[in-house]
Amino acid sequence: MSNLVSNTEKRPVLVVTWAIILFVSSFFMPYVIVFLIHNSFFQSREQWLFEAPGSGYLTFMIGMIWIPIVMILHVIIQSKYKVKYMRLISMALISLSIPFLLLGATHYYYIDNNGLHFNELKTFNKTSTYEWSSLKEVKQVYAERKEDGSVYFDHYEFITGDNKQIIIPYEVGLRNVEAHILEKLKENHVKVSDNYLDS
Predict the structure, then answer these.
(1) Which helix (H) or strand (E) holds 108?
(2) Which of 74, 105, 136 is the last residue of a domain?
(3) 81 and 169 co-located in one domain
(4) How crowded is residue 66: how many other Cβ atoms within 10 Å of its Cβ?
(5) Which domain holds residue 69?
(6) CA-CA 20 to 30 A from 90: which of 20, 106, 167, 194?
């Protein structure tokens, strides 16, 4: 009997401990988990560039954070009210994190010889392909730094035939393949413009 009481007392402590660990890890583990998922299932050598937008990591993070929140609420409510079927209710609430985890893990874009491929955040593992010839225009967007007023190259804006705008930050990965992209755009007579004089 004493063992049963002891185990009952320890269970909430264990749940809270795991909830704290999961909550803290939610702020850095999404980067590791999403990277491993992309590297294992979506990336290939044929791709020139593969990137996951920050919104994907943030969405995955929200899904992870939701789980320890439910765990803590479960312990608090049970300790005060002893709600019947609380475990089932908590499991149902935890399952709400699944869409966030799935959508966050499958939000990415990549560029290869065929064009630009984009998996939107609102779709689950549905990749839209935009061939080079289907692009209406590509804009090189410059911005101004608030600190010193200097102008810098901020991002590329790809405008598709259906007027969808896909923004890709001008970072190391893109810089490394920029020449290949511009060559493909030129081959397919896609207009390339910039706002340098306006910035």
Answers:
(1) strand 108-112
(2) 105
(3) no
(4) 18
(5) 2-105
(6) 106
Identify which of 123, 109, 103, 105 has the alpha carbon closest to the alpha carbon of residue 35. Answer: 105
* Statement to judge: residues 130 and 190 lie in one domain: yes
Mapped onto helix, strand or coil, the DSSP state of residue 190 is coil
Judge if 94 and 8 occupy the same domain.
yes
The structure tokens listed for 158 are 């790809």
Side-chain-facing half-sphere of 31: CA atoms under 13 Å: 4
User: What are the tens digits of pLDDT across the range 36-68?
Assistant: 999 999 999 999 999 999 999 999 999 999 999
In the 3-class helix/strand/coil scheme, how is 15-84 assigned residue by residue? Answer: HHHHHHHHHHHCCCHHHHHHHHHHHHHCCCCCCCEEECCHHHHHHHHHHHHHHHHHHHHHHHHHHHHCCC
pLDDT in tens, 6-32: 444 468 889 899 999 999 999 999 999
